[in-house]
Write a structure and sequence with these properties.
The complex is a heterodimer. Chain A is mainly alpha-helical. Chain A contains 13 helices and 8 strands. Among the domains of chain A are: 55 residues, no CATH class; 189 residues, MetI-like fold (Orthogonal Bundle), CATH 1.10.3720.10. Chain A is globular. The chains are: A mainly alpha, B alpha/beta.
Chain lengths: 398, 346
């Protein structure tokens, strides 16, 4: 050991550099740096090449176009927008539409996916077969065809003049689903707050019931108290504001309807298509998660005469979730990206509006860069949220 | 290790090829014509399916008004109108395709505008077709003029000049509408036909084709009278190659001038014997116009002989016998009160 010290070796520096060359840490770092440099170099080279060639061809470059007036209208907007607004605002409208159709799609896909996934492992023969058939159909047909199918279905609904009346509350036609909505009132904001407070209270109650059960072994059913507080609080607020009950009923006028709120056929077709497609995969993920829970766990729960509902909720699902959540994240992210199929059916999402912007300004590289960046941000944020959730449901090692 | 090396080599080759391809897209004077001659065919960007303008026929052969202008360019260069390769382009793909050099010339329902001329780095031939925004509506809706469309849902393609024109037409009249914007032409037409939209808007010249081919009963649909915007359709080339631009420009003028001189596909061989110096110059009997343009001296003769003059081309696709019959309106010679004015070919 002492012989190996560089001081007695005679060629200390050469030996040391040779050691360095063969050291695992140094090599790893060197490879990393070389790779990063290569990536940066290729990136810069491509960027330089694009800019140079665009300039040589006298094609406008840069992001200044975002501040120009768009001069086109958009069919569905969640914020105020007109043809006199800028391209940047038009893209924002598209982004919000992408987010709203994705959010609705994720909720729907999750509900259907979990229900079908649980049905897949059900002991009910018919239910299990139906669920299997459903999964095979929705996940084996390309998503774009499913969206086109639903677009055809919604377009072939009756025209506004022959619209289906929904018990006096709304209409279903090829212009979408139009339904009555309460006229805007200051009470609504407070009712929303009351709803949030109700949900929080129900959560606290649920937690108390669990502690109580763990301490005493006695189960307190919190379902009805929870429902009461979630529905009751907003109701009390509504009454306190003098029960404002003005409702805007849709009426046939001109080409379609006035009053109420309309969900466009394109939104319905796109949301249904992408969420049913995702629900097939989610169902399989849920089934895998449930089947990954050791049989002994369920048998043990049964042996102490736990009700089936409780077995699923307190024994199986908590263990299944840690298998379910990571792949579920991928499904959510791919659902968000699938929403760009909007282009095919005419829903004004980010890509649809980006296309128009690109074609009007001719700045394809910049417009695509904006779209790619936005999708990247949405997907990364979704992953981060899901990873946080995953950490919450993961089994705590004690 | 060898696999890794092969991968790295192919990636590097791809990067280098991409760089070269990008620089090849940059047009210097003379480059395009030389490249076309070396390739032996013209790459022409056309509409994937616009009846009358460009659509594959029942044998899969491209046919249409704009298709014939591509043939005219090939006839001028090679003396053989068939030496064209057609590239079908969506309205989004068309400008990147011409900018990147994927096609040599664009004859794809392109409206010539200032911003396209400048910001897109394009040059436009003289307009080959004058049209404007038109509306196709259902007869039993009782719509007779654009003012009746207040509150209507209107189907249109994304990014077209139509999208802006409709916004202006409605804003100018203080009216509202719901745009339904669909890129895929089949889905777009389907949305109108099934009743999702009250009106379909496109260039007016494109609507008779939709009515004749895509609707179940063409008589149930009407075109609103009047033209609500200027849509001069022209061929487009990249900026920077003046020789190529000149050639495209004069191919168009040759079709105008041939019609004006009464030289058509039917009589072009007899007209070769004409004593009129203008006709002789056009047909390359005297002068060296072809040489000046960098092509053979019989270039205009070949265009008229193999493709026809403007009238021949128009009547072939929009004549009274065609399924998409269209009046010539402004698309007649200046001598007859129209807008077609060929510059002198001296």
């Amino acid at each position: 050991m002492i012989d190996a010290t560089p001081a007695r070796d005679g060629q200390p520096s050469a030996r040391r550099s040779k050691d360095l060359l063969y050291s695992e840490g140094f090599r790893a770092a060197a490879y990393q740096i070389a790779l990063a440099a290569a990536v940066v170099f290729v990136g810069l080279f491509l960027y330089q090449n694009v800019v140079e060639n665009l300039q040589r061809q006298n094609i406008a470059t840069g992001f200044g176009f975002l501040r120009e007036v768009s001069q086109f209208e958009i069919g569905e907007t969640l914020i105020n927008y007109s043809a006199r607004d800028t391209y940047a605002r038009a893209l924002l409208v598209g982004l919000l539409n992408t987010l709203s159709v994705s959010a609705a799609g994720i909720v729907l896909a999750t509900i259907i996916g979990f229900s079908v996934g649980i049905a897949r492992v059900s002991n009910n023969w018919l239910l299990q077969r139906i669920a299997t058939g459903y999964v095979e159909i929705v996940r084996n047909v390309p998503v774009i065809l499913q969206v086109i199918f639903w677009a055809a279905v919604t377009r072939n609904l009756p025209a506004p003049r022959q619209a289906l009346e929904l018990w006096g509350l709304g209409f279903l036609s090829n212009r979408g689903l139009t339904f009555a909505t309460p006229v805007a009132d200051p009470a609504h904001g407070w009712m929303f707050l009351a709803l949030v407070a109700g949900i929080a209270l129900a959560g606290i109650g649920d937690r108390w019931a669990r502690r109580h059960r763990e301490a005493t072994g006695k189960h307190v059913d919190m379902l009805w108290p929870s429902l009461a507080v979630v529905i009751g609080l907003p109701l009390v607020v509504w009454l306190a504001f003098g029960a404002p009950h003005l409702i805007s009923f849709p009426e046939r006028k001109g080409f379609s309807f006035v009053g109420g709120y309309t969900i466009s056929p394109e939104f319905v077709a796109l949301m249904t298509g992408i969420s049913l497609y995702a629900s097939g995969f989610i169902a399989e993920i849920v089934r895998a998660g449930i089947e990954a829970t050791p049989k002994g766990q369920v048998e043990a729960a049964r042996s102490i005469a736990l009700r089936p509902r409780f077995i699923m909720r307190y024994v199986v699902l908590p263990q299944a979730l840690r298998v379910i959540v990571p792949p579920l994240t991928s499904q959510y992210v791919s659902l968000i990206k699938n929403s760009s199929i909007a282009v095919v059916v005419g829903y004004p999402d980010l890509v649809n509006i980006g296309n128009t912007v690109m074609n009007q300004t001719g700045q394809a590289v910049e417009a695509i860069a904006v779209m790619m960046t936005v999708y990247l941000i949405i997907s990364v944020v979704t992953s981060l949220l899901m990873n946080t959730y995953n950490r919450l449901v993961a089994i705590k090692e004690r | 290790m060898t696999i890794l090396k092969a991968v790295i080599r192919s990636v590097l080759a791809g990067v280098v090829a991409g760089a070269l391809g990008a620089s090849a897209a940059q047009a210097n004077s003379g480059d395009t014509l030389a490249a076309v001659k070396a390739r032996g065919e013209v790459l022409c960007g056309v509409h994937p399916a616009r009846h009358g303008f460009a659509a594959p026929d029942s044998q899969g052969k491209w046919s249409g008004f704009e298709v014939d202008f591509c043939h005219a360019v090939a006839a001028a260069i090679f003396g053989d109108a068939s030496k064209v390769r057609f590239v079908a382009l969506s309205s989004q793909q068309r400008f990147p395709a011409i900018q990147s050099g994927e096609v040599d010339v664009l004859a794809r329902n392109v409206t010539a505008t200032l911003s396209r001329d400048t910001a897109l780095g394009l040059n436009f031939s003289p307009p080959i077709f004058y049209t404007g925004t038109g509306f196709l509506v259902r007869k039993d809706d009782g719509i007779t003029k654009v003012e009746d469309l207040d509150g209507a849902a209107i189907c249109m393609a994304p990014g077209s000049t139509t999208e802006r024109n409709v916004a202006q037409i409605f804003a100018a009249r203080g009216m509202k509408y719901t745009p339904v914007v669909i890129e895929n032409n089949k889905q777009l037409v389907d949305a109108y036909v099934t009743g999702r939209c009250d009106a379909l808007t496109k260039d007016k010249a494109a609507l008779p084709g939709v009515r004749a081919v895509d609707t179940e009963n063409p008589a149930d649909h009407v075109l609103l009278p009047g033209i609500y915007s200027k849509e001069p359709l022209a061929m487009a080339v990249r900026q920077g190659d003046d020789q190529w631009y000149d050639l495209i420009k004069w191919v168009v003028y040759a079709t105008f001038n041939a019609e004006e001189m009464g030289v058509g596909q039917a009589n072009v061989d007899e007209m070769k014997a004409s004593t009129d110096p203008d006709v002789q110059t056009l047909l390359g009997v005297i002068g060296d116009n072809g040489t000046k343009l960098g092509v053979g001296n019989t270039w205009a003769y070949d265009i008229v002989k193999q493709v026809g003059n403007y009238k021949d081309i128009y009547m072939r696709h929009f004549g009274p016998d065609s399924p998409v019959a269209l009046d010539r309106d402004q698309n007649v010679l200046w001598t007859e009160g129209g807008l077609l004015y060929g510059l002198p070919m001296q």
